[in-house]
């Protein structure tokens, strides 16, 4: 009987980590764009040139980032925001609207819904888990559960049959 490895090969693990870093950076960039009104091209340049190489805010080596995924997330959210925001509004609990949510929570939901819509190479459950993990990095309250519920609801509409 052959045993299967319990961890993914290094190449897949590094790709997973690079995409995870891209998602986190995209959420931070979307937040910055929302708060400061910064142009998407300027934010992409800032992150790619100034933030990705070198160290993070805590002085730790910055993980390799999938720049193409980061760029796709940002440009895609901006391009499709008029489609994304109503999907989020429809998936929120009764009485809640996207405009009532914290800016970072809006950024997480927008990136997650965009990725659910357009990144079909990423399984729906992975999209949900990745953005719930990002929510945990910023919030200690009910926000991660909101992210889980909203992206799951949207995913069930977009990727019929993939989520059971």
SSE order and pairing:
Layout: H1 10-36, H2 40-51, H3 67-91, H4 103-118, H5 124-138, H6 143-158
Structure description:
The protein is mostly helical and 164 residues long. The chain has one domain (10-158): Orthogonal Bundle (N-utilizing Substance Protein B Homolog, Chain A). 68% of the residues lie in helices and 0% in strands. It has helices spanning 10-36, 40-51, 67-91, 103-118, 124-138, 143-158. Helix 4 (103-118) packs parallel to helix 6. The longest helix has 27 residues, at 10-36. The model is unreliable at 1-10 (pLDDT under 50).
Compact summary:
The protein is mostly helical and 164 residues long.
CATH superfamily: NusB-like
Could you name the CATH class?
Answer: Mainly Alpha
What is the N-to-C order of secondary-structure elements (H for helix, E for strand)?
HHHHHH
Supply Rg. Answer: 16 Å
Structural class: mainly alpha
The backbone outline, from C-alpha atoms, is: globular
How can the largest sheet be summarized? Answer: none
Number of strands: 0
């Amino acid at each position: 009987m052959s045993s299967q490895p319990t961890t993914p090969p290094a190449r897949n693990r590094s790709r997973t980590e690079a995409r995870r870093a891209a998602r986190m950076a995209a959420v931070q960039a979307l937040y910055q764009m929302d708060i400061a009104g910064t142009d998407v091209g300027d934010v992409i340049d800032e992150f790619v040139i100034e933030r990705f190489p070198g160290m993070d805010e805590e002085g730790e080596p910055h993980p390799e980032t999938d720049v193409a995924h980061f760029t796709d997330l940002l440009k895609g959210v901006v391009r499709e925001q008029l489609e994304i925001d109503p999907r989020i509004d429809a998936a929120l609990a009764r009485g809640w609207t996207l405009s009532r949510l914290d800016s970072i929570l809006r950024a997480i939901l927008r990136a997650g819904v965009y990725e659910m819509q357009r990144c079909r190479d990423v399984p729906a459950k992975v999209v949900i888990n990745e953005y719930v993990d990002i929510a945990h990095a910023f919030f200690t309250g009910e926000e991660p559960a909101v992210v889980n519920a909203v992206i799951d609801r949207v995913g069930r509409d977009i990727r019929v049959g993939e989520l059971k």
